[in-house]
Structure formats: structure tokens, C-alpha cells
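INPUT
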Amino acid sequence: MKISTTVTLKKDVLDPQGKVVSQTLKNMGYKNIISVRQGKYFEIEINEEDKNKVKIIIEEICKKLLANTIIEDYKINLK
Amino acid sequence: MISSVIVFPGSNCDRDVAVALKKFKIKNQMVWHNETSLPKSDLVVLPGGFSYGDYLRTGSIASKSRIIADVKAHAKKGGLILGICNGFQILIETGLLPGVLLRNKKLRFLSKNVFLKVINFNNKFCSNYKNKSIIKLPIAHNEGNYFANNEILKKLEDDNLIAFKYCDEKGKIDENSNPNGSSKNIAGILNFKKNILGMMPHPERLIDPVLSGEDGSMLFNSLNKIK
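OUTPUT
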């Protein structure tokens, strides 16, 4: 099964990279940009077809390695 | 005093710190990250560098190394651990120290000398700074912006667990003397039992008056006084 997860900085955590991207877009003429938050995207292939089992495993992976839950949120996208 | 410097792929201050330990009569051994057991040591040093190329998050991959289980056990027994720069980032990812180290506020890699105020002398790492509380050490990092929630920050202050704060030449701690945006100008912290110190500045780079200075020597001299 193929799953993807996105990891982004929590709302309250300053994202200087996102801020620079947002400012650059405004400088490029995209005046209607309000804000940009930058994150990470993972595509994971797993040898397991049971959706519930997969969800549990990916949840665990996100907590243990992919995200630092002090500053980051993760979202699991099951297809 | 016997020390072990853990070497990860991408460590680059491992030999510098080994030279410093040797200079201050601490018997040191280098330990590869993939070893399963830690040789007998009083002190474990996690050196600076760019372990695993800083992939994913700084220190995150190194914190899952095989040797880390034994390093955690060493910590639990009250053994000393010193994490410098990337070593501090690894301690944070391992969960041995609280908070996180974010990218520097201005997104620049910083490599320069900074002034530090020694906040806590009552630990085995900093006892020698009692008579010199404002010191100068180099920093060289991209992710040194210490961040923690208010509850953790309050606990660090209440329990006197902040070891070093960034300051200016006169010891003034404010936004102007904060190089990377760290909460409360924090440059180094201790765990509750004060046997673990994580710090962004590099004491091992200031151990020779001919080459640089001696403000780093005092830290290694504090350690060498113990046994």
C-alpha cells in the first residue's frame, strides 16, 4: 500500500523559511498572498494491505521519527 | 576520569574534543555509533558536526543509533554526558534534554565568537567558571535557536537548569546579544540531575592560549577535577 504524510510546523512556531517564501512571492508581484508555511512530504510504500493496521504503523512512525511533535503536526493521507 | 566520544557519520568535532580531553588528562576512547555497548566511561561526549548530513531534522537520525540505548542507560545511572552543538541537537532528539533547536532566526549559518554568561556553576561541568562568569566561546551552527513552551522555560529557570546564556561583553542579556533567536538567550541547559549538559558553543575550540584562548579549558578542567 502507498501512503503519504505531510509534516508541518505547528501554528505557533515561527517558520522563517515560509516567511521568506511568502515575502518573495509578494515581491514577485503576487500581492494577494497572505502567508506561506513550509513543510515536508513523505511517500511511504508499505507491505501491508489492511488500512487500519497501516494507519497504526504510520501514526507510530510519525510520532517516533518523521515529526518532532513538540513543534510539528503531521497529517496522514490514506488513499 | 574516563571518557567516550561517540562518533557518528558526519561528526567533525570529534577529534577536536578528543584533543581537549587528552590535554586535561581525561583518558578518552572513540566509540563508533554502531557499537552495541558503551565501554566503561564516566563521561560520554556527543561531538559537534553534521551527523547524517542533518537529514530530516538535525540530530534526529543519530538519536536512533544503536549506541544510544547504552548512552541513555549511562544517563539514568547518573553518568555524565556532554553534548556540544550537533551533540546538543542529538540530546534534544533523544529526549534526554527538553525543548527543540530550530533554525537560526535570521536563517544564516553563524560562525563567530560570542560572549556567554555562566548562569549555573553548581554542576560538574561549570564549577571552574565561579570566578569568571562572562566568557567568550565560538559558535558554528545553523539550528541553534532554542525553543520550548513557557512551562518548560519556567521549569528551567525555577530549577536553575540554564547553564549558559548569550550576552554582550559586559554581560548584558538582551535581544542585541542574542545571535540566533533562542528563548531567554539560552545557549546551554542541564537536565534535572545536572549530569547532562547540552550547549551550542564550542568549548573544545578554545583550549590553547597560543591559538585562541582558554575559556574552553575551564570546562574540561572542571571535569578533570572530579576524580
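end of record. The two ends of chain A are 9 Å apart (CA to CA).
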